[in-house]
Design brief:
Elements: H1 3-61, H2 73-93, H3 96-131, H4 137-177, H5 181-199
Helix pairs in contact: 1-2, 1-3, 1-4, 2-3, 3-4
């Protein structure tokens, strides 16, 4: 091998080494930047998820399973406002899996608040029936039965809400634990599968 060719090959090897090192360094910087971005988003997401779960838990805690006391119209309005406010914060944080789970939990919580309102209405109506001078015993029993059925429904919905809170918490935990490596592994696996199919 003459000296000129050796010099060219040496220069080429040095250039390739420099390019490989630059690409590796660039990839390392990108990985670090992605990790930092995820860390910066993690705490605000955690706070939004927690605040939403707490708002739903307050609705659940309002239903005592020993003795139910009717809510007021103002309480129901406050529950709805708090749920919607916390839901908006959560929906802006993402990701999609948490937004979907949060949407389902919001629906469940609003159903409980709705049934609270219906129960309050039926309770007030039962009081009016009992206080009416022209009401008979059968009317009073029907009014009481309707009210008691809705109290049972409030309890049933509130119990179900606990399961929904747990499901939401599991999805949120998974989103907070996601450091992006799962997605990269799946992408690499797909590339390998495509390459194998193309080679066959």
């Amino acid at each position: 091998m003459d000296a000129g060719l050796a010099a060219v090959l040496g220069a080429l090897a040095g250039s390739v080494g420099t390019v490989v090192a630059a690409v590796a360094q660039r990839e390392a910087v990108r990985i670090t930047a992605r990790a930092q971005q995820r860390n910066e988003r993690r705490q605000p997401r955690h706070d939004a998820y927690k605040a939403f779960a707490m708002a739903v838990t307050e609705v659940r805690k309002r239903v005592s399973f020993n003795e139910y006391e009717d809510t007021t119209e103002r309480e129901e309005e406050d529950f709805r406002n708090e749920l919607y406010e916390r839901w908006i914060d959560l929906s802006l944080m993402g990701p999609e899996s948490v937004v979907n789970a949060g949407s389902e939990l919001l629906d469940e919580a609003l159903k409980v608040v709705f049934v609270m309102g219906e129960t309050r209405y039926l309770g007030n109506r039962a009081i009016v029936v009992h206080e009416r001078s022209d009401s008979n015993e059968e009317e009073q029993e029907v009014a009481d039965a309707e009210y008691n059925a809705y109290v049972d429904l409030v309890w049933e919905r509130a119990r179900g809400l606990m399961d929904s809170i747990t499901a939401f918490s599991l999805v949120s935990q998974s989103a907070l634990d996601d450091d992006g490596t799962k997605r990269q592994r799946v992408r690499r696996r797909r590339i390998l599968v495509r390459t194998r199919v193309a080679n066959q």
